[in-house]
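Consider this today:
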Amino acid sequence: MASKVIHALYIDDDVLMDAVKKTRAAHYHIEEVYTPFPVHGLDKIMGLPHTKLAIASFMYGCVGLTVAITMMNFIMIEDWPQNIGGKPSFSYIENMPAFVPIMFELTVFFAAHLMVITFYMRSKLWPFKEAENPDVRTTDDHFLMEIDVANHDVVEMSNFLAETGAVEINLVDKE
């Protein structure tokens, strides 16, 4: 069953921020806000919870560091020890200062690549996925606020949104 939503278009991010504040104060439910670029502070004003991606990034970095230490210990100490520049090859601890750049690089490599994969999985962005953008102008220069109409008067909501600075207001069926 399709539900009705109102699409209110704005042309300025500051006007959008004020409109979101007023809309939440009026106790209307904002389904989503589409913007052509990230708007700083919009998530806090919309009341979205903090993300746990930073914890995942830290864990991915720890995995990268563990892989780096294990790999270097096996390759350079156990499997095929070599005398490079007079460094002793019988102890990992004595060689560790030379291994620090490799540990750093693999920590960053694992954190970055696994975070991209996690972001795509969490956002459900798959290759060849069709865009879910309700209005193509939001990829260029417009901001769209999608508000649920359930149990509210559409005319009253439209007048309210016009007062907040919306340049265009449309009633649409959401699939």
The beta strands are 3-10, 30-34, 143-148, 168-174. The mean pLDDT is 89.
